[in-house]
Every structure is written in C-alpha cells, then in structure tokens.
Design a protein that fits this description.
- Helices cover about 20% and strands about 30% of the residues.
- By secondary structure, it is of the alpha/beta class.
- The longest helix is centred in the middle third of the chain and has 10 residues.
Length: about 240
C-alpha cells in the first residue's frame, strides 16, 4: 500500500491518495454490526475511513491507514490518535465523503461498509455515486445485501433460488439466462420498471446490459461471487 500523504486541501479533485495492491475496506459512519468489520478485513485488509468512519474504526479497535473527507464528522479524540499525515482534508462540498474517499483510492476492489442503515439521503447518495465511471470496483455492503454497478456482461455463480434484484438508475435494457423471470426485451428506467426479487434458476446466471446504469442487489452471502464476477468482466468504459 502507498499513501500519498502530500495531498492536502489544494489536491486535485481526482488525486489518488491511497494505492493498494490488495482489496480495500472503506468504512463510513453508518450501520455496522458486530463482526462486520472483521468480515470485511478478512477480504480487504487495507482499511480506509471516510470522515467519521474513523471513529467507528477506532471503536472497533482498528486504526485506519487513511482518513479522507471534509472532516466535519471526525471527532477531536480521533484526531489525537490518528497520525496527522494519514488525515486527508478534501474541503469541497460538491460530493459526499463516500465519493471523496472512493475517487481517492486505487485498488483491485473496494468493500464499502457503514454507508447503509443510517440516514436515507446519505444511503441514496452513495448508491447514485456508484455510477461514477473510472473508479475501482466498489461493493456496498449492508446488513443483508451487497450492491454494485453492473458491467455490460456479468456471469454470476449463485445457488438455486438466490435473490437477484436489478435497480436501474438510468434507462437501460438487458438480457438474462438463469433467472426465473427473464429480462430480455424489457426497458428498465427509474420510475418506469425495476426488477426486484428475481431468482436464480441455475448455478450460473448470465446478465447483459445495453450500457451503464444498472445496480445489482444480491444477498450478502453472494458477495464473494459478485466480486469474482465483476473482476472477471470487462470494465465499463467512461461515458
């Protein structure tokens, strides 16, 4: 892991602060159940906090390698514990702390915890941000779900009956194999058609989408399968 500690208030908007050869756990200040952090760190051992997520990390006995955000939620006690070189202030108010942190990390994949279960506006902002192109693949982990932005083609290894929900944030069409209710020929769009609570009818579910804009929601137990499928897929091009 490389931390560019020279980044400060005048850092370019898309400057990389943390480079990691391993997966990164990105921790926010929202819902975190007992054992969640260890579960994530077993898969993504580099810990980065978005603003007040640093306090959550310290509460669970972990010091983040970096704290990134506008720092309006970081407590004075956390500032005393964490090395000042590892605290990165990004003062602009055009993006959330999740976005500030995500765009500042370069890693094979990011597991984002603590961004669900709290304020609904914060949670919705996080999910909308997943459509931002050109970032490390990010998987938002909730108490029961894993949510991610679908590549154009996705081959998932699932169990029979596993839930597969599709939530469009843009107009997008799709095709499928292995779903109880195929999506071929359907026009998905916010306020028009979504695809909640579909189910896998075979152990390999194949999805194709006409472009970016579709969020896939799986049961949390399918997180490892989701990561594998996304990393094996062709990345979405910036649009």
């Amino acid at each position: 892991m490389i931390i560019h500690s020279e980044m400060g208030d005048n850092a370019p908007k898309r400057a990389v602060i943390v480079q990691s050869a391993t997966f990164v756990t990105l921790l926010g200040g929202g819902e975190l159940r007992e054992g969640d952090l260890e579960w994530a760190l077993n898969r993504a051992p580099t810990l980065v906090a978005a603003d007040g997520g640093a306090d959550v990390a310290l509460l669970h006995g972990r010091e983040p390698a970096a704290v990134i955000g506008d720092l309006d939620s970081l407590s004075p006690s956390a500032r005393e514990i964490i090395k000042s070189d590892n605290i990165h202030h990004i003062p602009e108010q055009l993006s959330t702390d999740f976005e500030k942190a995500w765009r500042s990390i370069e890693a094979p994949a990011i597991l984002a915890l603590g961004f669900t279960g709290g304020r609904l506006d914060h949670e919705l902002a996080t999910l909308c941000a997943l459509l931002e192109p050109g970032r490390s693949p990010c998987f938002v982990i909730g108490a029961e779900d894993v949510i991610f932005h679908a590549p154009r083609r996705l081959d998932l290894s699932l169990n029979l009956g596993d839930r597969v929900s599709l939530v469009p944030l843009r107009a997008v069409q799709g095709r499928s194999k292995g779903l109880e209710w195929p999506i071929d020929g359907l026009d998905f769009a916010p306020g028009l058609r979504i695809g909640t609570s579909n189910r896998a009818t075979r152990e390999r579910v194949e999805l194709q989408f006409s472009g970016p804009g579709m969020l896939v929601v799986l049961a949390r137990g399918a997180c490892d399968a989701a990561i594998k499928a996304v990393l094996e897929a062709e990345p979405l091009a910036a649009d």
